[in-house]
């Protein structure tokens, strides 16, 4: 069995035989070899013991990310990956959590990093184009959903068993709500050799434009086998980037040379856009628009509610899935809150609250998985929100402005509270 440092394992009471062994995570995933590790997380190969599906599980230490001040960073990465569904983007299947760990269950991409392949030898123009087409399809999709990767490089591009590209590692990604009033992003980030010149100016930048620059550097590396801007002295390399000084290898076709001049344009205002790339003669050769099923608005709303539930449980200090009714020390003197985890269907919980309101002769207002109980004077007395946590679990959050009504509703909902198996510490 692999040694999983400080990992908390939970086995479901319904599991039997080997499913309850210590290398089974949440009674669902059999954990295997270590794939990689960083300062705050380790990635393991795992197998879904029900379906047999191979997955990669990113195990994140809450204590380490709290100490490193990276909690918002991790939350943003999870939020982004939940929203993105594209054939050329690594898929996040689900997020699980205990009091000390966060587990991101992701698509397992067995082919490894694109970097390892291009490090052996440069690619032909046709193969470079194929990967670039898939990269642009994925990044264009991200931009259309208000997500900017900001750390594109061959190490963050994986190749699956079919030879298709998958974009990974959204840890430095930004979303549109991070844009300041000047319409720009301002966080300095990225890998030096792939960073756009406008980032070096520290005056703000367009997230889409810097991603396109990085895509240009990646395409150059695939075709040439080396970086366009490189020097042992970091400041010298930055000067080359700022001035756009690079030499295209002699085997490069005229059409690709022209595309490089547009991709690696130091002026972001005149740099080529995604729409223009799609119309470029070199890019268009053999290009077939990738078709895939897109989330509808209802699905996106449910995904957002799922994340909210994850926030409530996973990012609360000292809150574990084994916590049932967790009373909150609210700063408000008028509003009390409590939360619990339930195995009931959301609609069933909503109906219980509605029936409770009718029994108490209180006005009931329902919208999707939110129920409000309104007093005679029109004031809100109780609000109940139901969030999907996993396929079989939900989080119920109750906000109460009436202590007597709160006690009655707590008793009414007590039968809905999930009784989990207590966590067992792994070796």
Automatic annotation (TrEMBL):
Residue stretches of biased makeup (Low complexity): 11-20
Membrane-spanning ranges: none
InterPro entries cross-referenced by the UniProt entry: Kinase-like_dom_sf, NAF/FISL_domain, NAF_dom, Prot_kinase_dom, Protein_kinase_ATP_BS, Ser/Thr_kinase_AS
Top-level taxon of origin: Eukaryota
Region annotated Disordered, chain positions: 1-20
Protein kinase domain mapped to chain residues: 29-283
Pfam families: NAF, Pkinase
EC number: 2.7.11.1
NAF domain mapped to chain residues: 302-326
Keywords: ATP-binding, Kinase, Manganese, Nucleotide-binding, Serine/threonine-protein kinase, Transferase
GO molecular function: ATP binding; protein serine kinase activity; protein serine/threonine kinase activity
Record-listed ATP binding positions: 58
Keyword Oxidoreductase: no
UniProt cross-references to Gene3D superfamilies, sorted A to Z: Kinase associated domain 1, KA1, Phosphorylase Kinase, domain 1, Transferase(Phosphotransferase) domain 1
Catalytic function, reaction form: L-threonyl-[protein] + ATP = O-phospho-L-threonyl-[protein] + ADP + H(+); L-seryl-[protein] + ATP = O-phospho-L-seryl-[protein] + ADP + H(+)
GO biological process, one term: signal transduction
Family as reported in the entry's similarity comment: Belongs to the protein kinase superfamily. CAMK Ser/Thr protein kinase family. SNF1 subfamily.
Protein name stated in the entry: non-specific serine/threonine protein kinase
């Amino acid at each position: 069995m692999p040694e999983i440092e400080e990992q908390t394992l939970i086995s479901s009471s319904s599991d039997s035989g080997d499913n309850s062994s210590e290398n089974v995570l949440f009674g669902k995933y059999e954990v295997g070899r270590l794939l990689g590790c960083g300062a705050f997380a380790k990635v393991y190969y795992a197998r879904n013991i029900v379906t047999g599906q191979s997955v990669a599980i990113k195990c994140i230490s809450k204590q380490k990310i709290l100490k490193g001040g990276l909690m918002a960073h991790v939350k943003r990465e999870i939020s982004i990956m939940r929203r993105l569904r594209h054939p050329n983007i690594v898929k996040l299947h689900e997020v699980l959590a205990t009091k000390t760990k966060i587990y991101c269950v992701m698509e397992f991409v067995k082919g490894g990093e694109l970097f390892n392949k291009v490090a052996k030898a440069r690619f032909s123009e046709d193969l470079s184009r194929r990967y670039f087409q898939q990269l642009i399809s994925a990044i264009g999709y991200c931009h259309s959903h208000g997500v900017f990767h900001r750390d594109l490089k061959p190490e963050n591009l994986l190749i699956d068993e079919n030879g298709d590209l998958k974009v990974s590692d959204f840890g430095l990604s930004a979303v549109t709500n991070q844009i300041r009033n000047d319409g720009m992003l301002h966080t300095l980030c990225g890998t030096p050799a792939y960073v756009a010149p406008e980032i070096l100016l520290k005056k703000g930048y367009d997230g889409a434009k810097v991603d396109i620059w990085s895509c240009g550097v990646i395409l150059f590396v695939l075709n040439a086998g080396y970086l366009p801007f490189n020097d042992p002295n970091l400041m010298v390399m930055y000067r080359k980037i700022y001035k756009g000084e690079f030499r295209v290898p002699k085997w490069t076709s005229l059409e690709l040379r022209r595309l490089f001049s547009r991709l690696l344009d130091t002026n972001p205002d005149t740099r080529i856009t995604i729409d223009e790339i799609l119309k470029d003669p070199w890019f268009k050769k053999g290009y077939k628009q990738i078709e895939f099923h897109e989330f509808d608005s209802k699905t996106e709303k449910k995904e957002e509610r799922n994340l909210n539930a994850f926030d409530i449980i996973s990012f609360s200090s000292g809150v574990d899935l084994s916590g049932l009714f967790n009373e909150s020390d609210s700063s408000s003197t008028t509003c009390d809150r409590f939360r619990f985890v339930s195995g009931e269907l959301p609609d069933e919980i909503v109906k219980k609250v509605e029936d409770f309101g009718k029994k108490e002769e209180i006005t009931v207002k329902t919208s999707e998985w939110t129920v409000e109980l309104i007093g005679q004077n029109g004031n809100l007395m109780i609000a109940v929100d139901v969030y999907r946590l996993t396929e079989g679990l939900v989080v119920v959050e109750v906000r109460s402005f009436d202590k007597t009504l709160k006690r009655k509703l707590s008793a009414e909902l007590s039968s809905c509270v999930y009784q989990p198996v207590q966590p067992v510490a792994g070796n």
